[in-house]
Amino acid sequence: MQKRFYRKHLAGSFDSGPRVHRPGVRPPAPSDSPALAQLMLDGYRGTIDYEGEELEDAVEAVYDYFDSNPMLDHSYILAAGDRVRSAVLLMRRSSGEPMVSYVMTAPKAKGQGLAADLLELSLAGLVAAGESSVCAYITDGNTPSERLFKRAGFVEVTEHSES
């Protein structure tokens, strides 16, 4: 799968702060790993990003995320009981730039604006922390993700580097 690189410059964004006021929104914790893995599998199954992964693959991906350079202060999940309905997980690239690593929403919760609200909250936190930009890789043809990121002000960048 080919991925496209997107970036958003954060200067001047969110002057009035984020509008997200959903109950159950909080930063993720390693203890959320099983629920995040299930969300990942359920949310990606049947989409362009699904490549036949099983639950153990999703568990490994989530543990890898927590073992990498996660930006937990700017990542958010929407939890309902022991389930996670949506998540936006950020990490810091080797260049130091924040990157949206995962956007996931449970199939029954898609189309409710959950991912958009969590992304808005993450972006507002990055602005408040003084970050100048954020990036994301989106699978070519993932129309829902492309729409989400474009609405949030991301633009496709044809040339990029890690530094």
Q: What is the H level of CATH, i.e. the homologous superfamily?
A: Gcn5-related N-acetyltransferase (GNAT)
Query: What does the average pLDDT come to?
Result: 91
**What is the C-level CATH assignment?**
Alpha Beta
Please report which band the strand proportion falls in: under 5%, 5-15%, 15-25%, 25-35%, 35-45% or over 45%: 25-35%
Count of the separate structural domains? 1
Strand runs, count: 7
Along the chain, the helix and strand elements come as EEHHEEEHEHE
**Rg on CA atoms, Å:** 15 Å
CATH architecture: 3-Layer(aba) Sandwich
CATH topology: Aminopeptidase
Please state how the strands of the largest beta sheet are arranged side by side. 2-3-4-5-6-1-7
Biggest sheet architecture: 7 strands, mixed
Shape: globular
Written account of the structure:
The chain is of the alpha+beta class. It has a single domain (3-156), classed as Aminopeptidase. It has helices at 33-44, 55-67, 114-128, 143-151; strands spanning 3-9, 25-26, 76-80, 83-92, 98-105, 133-139, 155-156. The radius of gyration is 15 Å and the shape is globular.
Secondary structure layout plus pairing:
Layout: E1 3-9, E2 25-26, H1 33-44, H2 55-67, E3 76-80, E4 83-92, E5 98-105, H3 114-128, E6 133-139, H4 143-151, E7 155-156
Parallel strand pairs: 5-6
Antiparallel strand pairs: 1-6, 1-7, 2-3, 3-4, 4-5
Helix pairs in contact: 1-2
Task: Label this structure with key terms.
163 residues, Aminopeptidase, 4 helices, 7 strands, 30% helix
Describe the structure concisely for a colleague:
By secondary structure, the protein is an alpha+beta fold.
